[in-house]
Amino acid sequence: MKIGIQGEPGSYSAEAAARLLPGSEAVSFTTFEDVHQRLRDKSIDAALLPFENTLIGSIMEQYDLLIRYPAEIEQEFILHVQHQLIGLPDGELGMVQEVFSHPAALQQCRRFFVRHPHIRKTAFYDTAGSVAHVLGQGDYTLAAIASRQAAARYGGRILKEDVHDDTDNCTRFLMLRRPGEAQPSSPETNKVSVLLEVAHQPAALSAALAEFAEHGYNLTKIEPRTIPGSSLPHSFFADFECGSPSEADDAIATLQARGGLVRVIGRYRAARRPTGNCLR
Question: What's the CA gap between 93 and 17, in Å, rounded?
Answer without folding.
Answer: 31
